[in-house]
Amino acid sequence: MIETFLWLLGYQFAGELLARSLGWPIPGAVLGMLFLFLTLCVRKGIPDTLRHNVPRLMTHMSLLFIPAGAGILAFWPLLAERPLAMAAVLLLSTLSTLLISALTLTLLLRWQQGRKARS
Amino acid sequence: MTPTVYEWLRQSPLTGIFLTLLAYRVALSISRRYHGHPLANTVLVGAGLLITSLLALGLSFDEYFRGASFIQFLLGPVTVALAIPLYNNLARLKRSAFAILCSIVVGSVAGVASAVLIATAFDMPPQIVLSLAPRSATTPIAIGVAEAIGGIPTLAAAFVIVTGIIGAVLARPLLTLLRMNDEVVLGVATGIAAHGIGTARVFQVSETAGAFAGLAMGLTGFVTAVVAPLLVHFLLS
């Protein structure tokens, strides 16, 4: 477990340092994820400690969003100004984002398969 | 309860940490009891239980967050850890990289444009429209973008959370309805539309879907940060 957190916090640390010194608006953890991914591609394998511990960590990722979810309590006065219109906007825009993303990917994957089948 | 005990309860980080774990564990039981029904979403139910108990105990969000911030801190290392499931799906990623990258760009643009256009259609005031624009990105990016384009950062953070919960609840039923049963499509679409909360949800469905959701979440953040200011300017001018 200690080695796992050294890996993960180390990459987050590197990501934060880079994002902050370049003034990028990207979270350090997202950069850390990309660096770790590139490291694994170069190493051509996952260190044992990460392979054993990370899957267990990921199963409970939802837990980590509960504090932010409870944050709705603090924002409630802002959200509740026009509750119905607000709910409709959030619902419709999220649905259309989901729909457009899923349709685009499905069509592109089909097109790619069709091209492979022809060649 | 004596006043000193109640004072301790409000000040101690133990309260927030314990309540969060308890709410999550109960939410997990409810989710399992209803066989992972979308409305029995662990973030939705967990946050609902927690808000109820905070109101019942008379605790403010700031008092709660003294402890809960320790739990939220773990989001950083867990985001980094998304690299591992992604690497496990390297073959699938290589095969479909072009399609996935294109969809992420299209989806990120759709995320910003849909919010701006629909909110304008509902006659929302400009500050709210601008706070809605980056709502598909993860919280830190959305806050930065909202600030840059003239929205209200705290309001943007609230929209991000609500969007994530809506996306996490609706993604799978919507795609099942449309008979899109590809795990990669589920993952990528959820990661684009519902960032980390959606990613956490699809991890409960499959590791492959979770891996691609994590990738999509990260790249949507990049694209939104770059594209949102230009796109908002274009749409509102």
TrEMBL record, chain A:
**Where does the source fall among the domains of life?**
Bacteria
Q: Which UniProt keywords apply?
A: Cell membrane, Membrane, Transmembrane, Transmembrane helix
Matching entries from Pfam families are given as:
LrgA (PF03788)
Organism per entry: Vogesella margarita
| Name of the protein | CidA/LrgA family protein
Recorded topology in the membrane: Multi-pass membrane protein
Cell compartment(s), UniProt:
Cell membrane
Q: Which residues cross the membrane?
A: 22-42, 63-79, 85-109
Does the record's keyword annotation contain Signal? no
TrEMBL record, chain B:
Classify the protein's membrane topology as the record does.
Multi-pass membrane protein
What Pfam families does UniProt report for this protein, alphabetically? LrgB
Matching entries from InterPro entries are given as: CidB/LrgB
Compartments it resides in: Membrane
- Keywords assigned: Membrane, Transmembrane, Transmembrane helix
Q: Where is it chiefly localized?
A: membrane
**Membrane-spanning segments:** 12-30, 42-61, 67-86, 98-121, 141-171, 183-203, 209-236
- Matching PANTHER family, A to Z? PLASTIDAL GLYCOLATE_GLYCERATE TRANSLOCATOR 1, CHLOROPLASTIC, PUTATIVE SEROTONIN TRANSPORTER
Could you tell me what this protein is called?
LrgB family protein
The species this protein was found in: Vogesella margarita
